Amino acid sequence: MGPSTAFLWAATVLVMLQMCTSSHDSIVDRSSRNLSSVPTDLPLAAEYIDLSCNHIHQLHKGEFKNTTLLRFLNMSWNGLELIDTETFHDTPLLENLDLSHNVLRNLSEQRYLSFTGNLRALNVAWNKFENMTLGREFSLLRKLESLTLGAKVISLGDFKNIANVTLYRLTLSLEEELDYEASSLMDIHAEKIQVDLNGGKITQSELLADVLSFFVEVEVRNISGGYQYVKTQLSKRAIISTRTLSVNNIVIDWDDLTQLINATLYTSIAHLSASDIAINKPPIKDTPLTQTSSMQSFTASRAAVNSFFFSQEALYNFFINLPVEHCAIVESSLIHMTCPKKQSPILELDFSFCALSDSIFSRFEGQETVECETLGNVQNLSLVGNNLKNLQVVSIRLQYMKSLQHLDLSINSFVYDGTPNCTWPPSITVMNLSSGGLTDNVFNCLPEGVETLDLQNNQISVIPQLVLKLQNLSSLNLNANRLVDLPVCNDFPKMTELLLKSNSLHAPSLRNLKKCPNLKILDVSDNPFTCTCPLRHFIRLSIQTEYKSGHSGLELLNWPEGYHCIYPEAARNSTLESFQIPEISCSASLLAATILVPSVVLIVTIFFLCRRLDVPWYMGMIWQWTRAKHRARMRQLRPEDLVGIEFHAFVSYSQHDADWVKNFLLLNLEGPAGGLRICHHEKDFVPGKTIMENIITCVEKSRRSVFLLSAHFVKSEWCHYELYFASHQRLSQGSDSLVLVLLEPLPQYLIPSKYYQLKSMMKRHTYLEWPQDKAKHRLFWANLRAALQSDLPSKLVAETEEFS
């Protein structure tokens, strides 16, 4: 199947999939079935039928009588020789017909077209047509939009029967041996013409002359040579009808390419584009370039150079100095782009999906880096999908683009350390930094005048307090980041749109929302909402926005279908709108009243019963017995029980929390500050032993075991083993030797099921929490030291003091 055929039928399939009903019978694929005739069992509801790549040599009347709803028919690659006149009598809805790659022989005798007045697309290329003379049946195709033809001879008057048909696109699939008569295309009325040379060379200058004279939009594709004819025709006429010229899928020498571009610059063509270009013989020095032109845009996509020995600077200089307003080179292996030699007229630059680095537009003179100052007219710049790394350096590269308004730097791998020395042009109003791997620091490197900012799909967890407020920011996209709460608008006083879809918001705080008086559009859908009391105010606000009441005209996007609970388990996947939280469970005053009144009555009743039944006396006895049992247990701890104990505590933690252990825990527990002996794997694991043996030994030699709980802890297999052995030691010795320290909030639902012992301990035992407030750190360390303090054998105590 040829390229034009494939394109046509790809579009056909898309349209058909949109139009087809729920019935599976509407699409019938019988291609490549070795059929010799049209199947008789075609469904009555068939609208799309593919019979390509079979051996159906003839089509007869009545073969489609049962498919009256037929809209699309593919009969390509069948060896078709004959089609009866009334073949399509029973298919009045037929819109798309592909008869390409067959052996039909006479374009003037395609009488079956008399019954296809509803056709919008017809492909009869790659048949055995000698002449392009269209029969009178073509004049009946008044709705035809796309026509694909091919023949060996094109003569004057061949297209007179479609002179009254207005096409959107005419495609001529030609060969090098074409015999073309000048002005043969004058009867065609089409917005666009495609000339497909099928890998051959351009040999007909008369054809090119007519194409450029009669059609506004021209595409020439699949070319391997003959570019001198194009250059000649472009050079002959400065004023031509064509406004858009495209050359696609070509193999061309650098000299031919630059001469073609230079010749086009002298014409009235406004838009020149080239795609899938293979460039041979690239330059070794700068190429002359026309300095003035009325051409508006140049676009090159998927360009490749078939040589390793050439001057990259000469190649880049040619394109960056083009006298056009819009220049785009995309999906190509550009690793650098030079600076124009003089002030450039370019208003829009697009280098998307190339391989550009941070050195873009700059040059070196000795040890100095010279920045580009000749792109001052650029208003739109797209550098999507390149190899940009340093955000601050990129801002320096663009600092002299004084007219720059729209900047797209998405899909790069940025690294930024937070140094506030970014020098963006102050004119930037729209900026896209999505999918760049950026963190919270990015807010220190933004243009002050930005109005629309896209930071979606990054690693932002909080918006820091800014030194310079973004006074003009009205739209902020933070979708797919790591935010845990709504940001405040203190630094964004004009913000009207805030997008926070797919973050880590559990219970958005309305206090922050009230600080955004101008906010009109909010999206917090697809977040992991925990349906507990703190969320009820947000749910109430969401329902109010649905009914246009409450918060001044706020629109909550994707409500209610995009808002679901993930906790508690009983409410998982239920919508926030349907989830009900009892008022009594969230109101402290109501709950207190509900509990206190019955409690007071119960206490008074118990008091009088106790007095009546002498209960105080029994309680006193039980208390004395309990104290006696407690003293007896304490007396059982003898010095010999401490044999083998060398440490006050063994510390179990995830490697991700190692910095906290070194910089905080060891400094406050060991040495003069704490006076304790702490066992941890980096210092006390014995080389040569297995990790498992070291864990068991350290647990056995320690009076207590301290577990630093975090999200990383519950993901670590070794931490799991350490918790397991410490738990078994506690059971075997009958002592409560475990101390739990919570480094960060760790909800129960985030703890894997294999940590059932940890879940049980956290429910039954009191654990210490690492406070974020520095003022509370001293009390935290005092409590932890008190929990670990115990008497060790005197020898170890002496060693500890000597070590201190």
Automatic annotation (TrEMBL):
<keyword id="KW-0520">NAD</keyword>
<feature type="domain" description="TIR">
    <location>
        <begin position="645"/>
        <end position="788"/>
    </location>
</feature>
<keyword id="KW-0391">Immunity</keyword>
<dbReference type="InterPro" id="IPR001611">
    <property type="entry name" value="Leu-rich_rpt"/>
</dbReference>
<keyword id="KW-1015">Disulfide bond</keyword>
<keyword id="KW-0732">Signal</keyword>
<dbReference type="InterPro" id="IPR017241">
    <property type="entry name" value="Toll-like_receptor"/>
</dbReference>
<dbReference type="InterPro" id="IPR035897">
    <property type="entry name" value="Toll_tir_struct_dom_sf"/>
</dbReference>
<keyword id="KW-0675">Receptor</keyword>
<keyword id="KW-0433">Leucine-rich repeat</keyword>
<keyword id="KW-1133">Transmembrane helix</keyword>
<keyword id="KW-0399">Innate immunity</keyword>
<comment type="similarity">
    <text>Belongs to the Toll-like receptor family.</text>
</comment>
<keyword id="KW-0325">Glycoprotein</keyword>
<keyword id="KW-0472">Membrane</keyword>
<keyword id="KW-0395">Inflammatory response</keyword>
<keyword id="KW-0812">Transmembrane</keyword>
<feature type="transmembrane region" description="Helical">
    <location>
        <begin position="588"/>
        <end position="610"/>
    </location>
</feature>
<dbReference type="GO" id="GO:0006954">
    <property type="term" value="P:inflammatory response"/>
</dbReference>
<dbReference type="GO" id="GO:0005886">
    <property type="term" value="C:plasma membrane"/>
</dbReference>
<dbReference type="GO" id="GO:0004888">
    <property type="term" value="F:transmembrane signaling receptor activity"/>
</dbReference>
<feature type="disulfide bond">
    <location>
        <begin position="422"/>
        <end position="445"/>
    </location>
</feature>
<dbReference type="GO" id="GO:0002224">
    <property type="term" value="P:toll-like receptor signaling pathway"/>
</dbReference>
<dbReference type="Pfam" id="PF01582">
    <property type="entry name" value="TIR"/>
</dbReference>
<dbReference type="InterPro" id="IPR000157">
    <property type="entry name" value="TIR_dom"/>
</dbReference>
<protein>
    <submittedName>
        <fullName>Toll-like receptor 1</fullName>
    </submittedName>
</protein>
<dbReference type="InterPro" id="IPR032675">
    <property type="entry name" value="LRR_dom_sf"/>
</dbReference>
<feature type="signal peptide">
    <location>
        <begin position="1"/>
        <end position="22"/>
    </location>
</feature>
<keyword id="KW-0677">Repeat</keyword>
<dbReference type="GO" id="GO:0045087">
    <property type="term" value="P:innate immune response"/>
</dbReference>
